[in-house]
Amino acid sequence: MAFGDVKTANGLKELDKFLADHSYVEGYTPSKADLSVFDALGKAPAATYVHALRWYNHIASFNTKERSEWGGQALPQVAGGKPTAAAPAGGDDDDVDLFGSEDEEESAEAAKLKEERLAAYNAKKSKKPALIAKSSILLDVKPWDDETDMKEMEKNVRSIEMDGLLWGAAKLVPVGYGIHKLQICCVIEDDKVSVDLLTDTIQEFEDYVQSVDIAAFNKI
């Protein structure tokens, strides 16, 4: 997740590639890590960077007060003030040098070292839990009119509980004529939660909800 200088073509390419499968820089809700990259960009990326532009516009839709309340850690800074991901504590799989230096002479000692490292690597991999397929969804929940109690609407939406469903950040977005829609993020486990069932369940609060649209859908 090291993007380098996101003001360069290579940095933007890496960022766009990462955001193709992620809603945010870290985790499932907006955080200070997103702000680090957002501030480093300084302006919206070109339209050719589809995923980066979608993410940038989403972060830009939050006001200063909302951003100040986000949790998480800002990304460490490198030369030039460009954010990059911190090296994980304790190392990662990439730290395991299975084959030693390219210049290392082949010998019995070197072969033994490779075998030990390979055994340690396989042991570490075998202990990792199986990945669970998840998706991050941004929902637009629209009320009937400007007299709808939006706080009560959000309360009803968040009251929906399903195994594999986690509600995230939410905000009200103006749509015109004094009417606001509720924009709310959630993360689902794909094997446990049906998107159609979730939207249908939200629409059952018919005293408040006129319709539900999927504003963004990303695999995690």
UniProtKB/TrEMBL annotation:
Q: Is this entry keyworded Calcium?
A: no
Q: What is the species listed in this Swiss-Prot or TrEMBL entry?
A: Anopheles culicifacies
Entries under Pfam families matching the protein:
EF-1_beta_acid (PF10587), EF1_GNE (PF00736)
**Matching SUPFAM superfamilies:** eEF-1beta-like, GST C-terminal domain-like
Instruction: Give positions of region: Disordered.
Output: 74-105
Domain Translation elongation factor EF1B beta/delta subunit guanine nucleotide exchange stretches = 134-220
- Return the Acidic residues bias intervals: 91-105
Q: Where is the Elongation factor 1 beta central acidic region eukaryote domain?
A: 98-125
- Recorded protein name is Elongation factor 1-beta
Give the Gene Ontology MF terms in alphabetical order.
guanyl-nucleotide exchange factor activity; translation elongation factor activity
Q: Which UniProt keywords apply?
A: Elongation factor, Protein biosynthesis
Family designation? Belongs to the EF-1-beta/EF-1-delta family.
GO CC annotation terms, alphabetical? cytosol; eukaryotic translation elongation factor 1 complex
Read off the InterPro entries from this record.
Answer: eEF-1beta-like_sf, EF-1_beta_acid_region_euk, EF1B_bsu/dsu, EF1B_bsu/dsu_GNE, Glutathione-S-Trfase_C_sf, Transl_elong_EF1B/ribsomal_bS6, Transl_elong_EF1B_B/D_CS
